[in-house]
Amino acid sequence: MFKLVDKLIGIITLVAMLGLAGSYTARYIDPNTFIFPSLLGLAYPYLLIANIILLLYWIARWKKMAFIELLVLAIGIPVFRTYYGTHKEKNVTESYDLQILSYNVRYFDRYGWSKHKNTSEKLLDYLNHFPGDIICLQEFPEKSASINPQAIIRELSSYPYHRIKKNMAIFSRSPIITCKEITFDKKYTSSCLYCDIVKSGDTVRIYNIHLESYKLGQKERKFVKDISEGVGNDLSEGVKNLTSRITEANKSRAKQARQIKTVLQHSPYPFIVCGDFNDTPLSYTYQTIEKGLQDSFIEKGRGLGNTYIGEFPSFRIDYILHSPHYQTISYFRETVTLSDHYPIQSKLKKRNRKN
C-alpha cells in the first residue's frame, strides 16, 4: 500500500518540483518569447507551499526524494527573500537624507469602490500626516463630477511643489526643477512621470511608474471571486479568459520595462524608482527594471511584502527601488485599507554621507 502511495506522491512531487524550478526562470525569460515561465512565476507562492508540504511527507517517509526536494527549495532562497522580508528590526534610530512614500490611491475612491464613507477625506488625512519629503501617487484622479483634483492639491498644501500627468502625481516639500514623462505606445494605459528634485543642495531624480494592469473585466473578476469562494460552473471558459488577460498584460509590461530601463540608464542624477509595477518580484518586468538597483524591501523589509489587496490574489506589486548612490535605512508597508493597495514608504541615506 505504501509503495503505491509513494509512487503516486512521487509523480506529484516531480511535477511540483519542475513547476517550482520553472518559476525561478520567469525573471530571465521574456514573456514575448515564451509565456509559460511568466505564468509559473505568478504561481510561485502556491508552488512553494506545495513543495514544502511534499518535503515534509518525504522526510516523514525517510526517503531520498526529500534531499532532491530540499535542493530545489534551497536554490530558490534568493527568490523567497523577494517575497518575505528577513531583516531584523532594530530600535536604533539612524539618520537619513530622504523619506519617500508610494501609493496607488485608486482615484481617491472616485466611484465608491471601498463602500465606506469619507474614504477620499481619509486618504488626504493620511497623506498630510506623512512626515516625509516626497509622495508618489498612482491613479491620481482627473477632473470628474465627483472628484476635483485641484481641491485635492489644495488639501495637500503641506507639499507645495507638485507635478501631475496622466493620472500620475509627484508631491514634494523641496523644489521640483524639471519634470518629464516616458511616452508609451498609445494602445497602453501605462504611465511614467519623472521629476528632478533639489533637496539640501543635491538633485535626485524620482521616477513614478504605473505599468499595464490585467484589465480584468466584470466577468474575470466574478470568476476570481467565485473560485476563491469555491463556487462557479464554467471553469474552462473562466480559466481561458483569465489566462488571456494575464498573458497579454505580461507581454505588454515586459516591453514597457525595457523602455523604462533605457531611460534609467541615462539618468544624470542619483535616482529612486517607485510605483505600481502590476507584476511580482518573480517576473521579467521586475528583473529588467531592478537589475543594477537596490530594492528597499529586500534591504530592510520584514515579513510578508504583499501590497495588493484587491480581488486578485495578494502579491507584492508595488516597489521602491534606488540607484547604488543610496542605501535603505528603513522600509515600511502600512496596512491602510483606503485603496486596493497598501502604501509603502522608505527612508534613504546617501552612501557618501559623512557622519
Protein traits:
12 helices; alpha+beta; 39% helix; globular; 355 residues
Question: Could you characterize what this model shows?
Answer:
Helices cover 39% and strands 23% of the residues. The protein has twelve helices and 14 strands. The protein has helices at 2-24, 36-42, 44-61, 65-75, 77-83, 106-109, 119-128, 149-155, 218-228, 235-264, 284-290, 296-300, and strands at residues 84-86, 98-104, 134-138, 161-165, 168-172, 176-181, 191-199, 202-210, 271-276, 294-295, 302-304, 318-322, 326-333, 344-350. A six-stranded mixed beta sheet has the order 4-5-3-2-14-13. The radius of gyration is 22 Å and the shape is globular. 38% of the residues are buried. The mean pLDDT is 89.
